[in-house]
């Protein structure tokens, strides 16, 4: 397995489920759910359905067909994956063994397994949120598995797999904070990464109110940078997907998650628009994971030991 350089100064990772309560993440919002999907501007009409925007897999098991992008990857000898390296439980470079691990990493391994017959033929490229779109479009990576939300704006420039996980934006504060939600942070500094949809949501929060102040976004490169700013009290809060915030909370027990779910965040694996056959192939891999129990096994290991129903994928065609 090929890996990027270790994250400097990173402490040993806590075990799966550290500082987490059992929870469930359905592939689509439950009926009556009030969180707003970030597929649209506040108050606008949805442009697409991120839960049914991907190409349907071909019938049968994933097949590496002649002349396909999968065949090109196999000939090259390794799958190139853009991943996170500092989000516990999803994409994390473990400093103890130099290996990438997490729920997103398991998705990449399953794709490599389907192409090569082994999950080890992977070159991981640790990238920031801001690099995800560029690296997919310029061909630096074959696939991005990086807690990436399927957005209508993103679908114009890159393709995604079917939804394999749904997160929700929330707020992380210090334990001694009296803040109970984003609505109490008007005019205050809230940290988010450059290139994340979380930053845009924070900047426009309370946009429907003519009198309420917006929170002030403090942009950084990595979510761990946000944690440092929070610890130094240079920001009042960090706001992004609960999956990421729980990873930060696992690193600092003097923080807490507050407030209700603000949004739905349907995660997809990003793929260049030039390779629709690869999208169908990846969706076939995901469908097989739902059926053979490997998706649930990964979920139980990295996200929550509680029972969860695997996603029920929907497609655009």
UniProtKB/TrEMBL annotation:
Q: Pfam families given for it? A: SBP_bac_3
Tell whether RNA-binding is among the UniProt keywords: no
Q: Which family does it belong to?
A: Belongs to the bacterial solute-binding protein 3 family.
Q: What Gene3D superfamilies does the annotation carry?
A: Periplasmic binding protein-like II (3.40.190.10)
Gene Ontology CC terms: extracellular region; outer membrane-bounded periplasmic space
Domain Solute-binding protein family 3/N-terminal stretches = 78-306
Keyword annotations: Signal, Transport
Organism expressing this protein natively? Trebonia kvetii
For this entry, list what GO says about its biological process. Answer: amino acid transport
Judging by the UniProt lineage, the source's domain of life is: Bacteria
What name does UniProt use for this protein? Answer: Glutamate ABC transporter substrate-binding protein
Q: What is the lineage of its organism?
A: Bacteria, Bacillati, Actinomycetota, Actinomycetes, Streptosporangiales
Q: Compositional bias (Low complexity) at which positions?
A: 25-34
Region Disordered, annotated ranges: 14-41
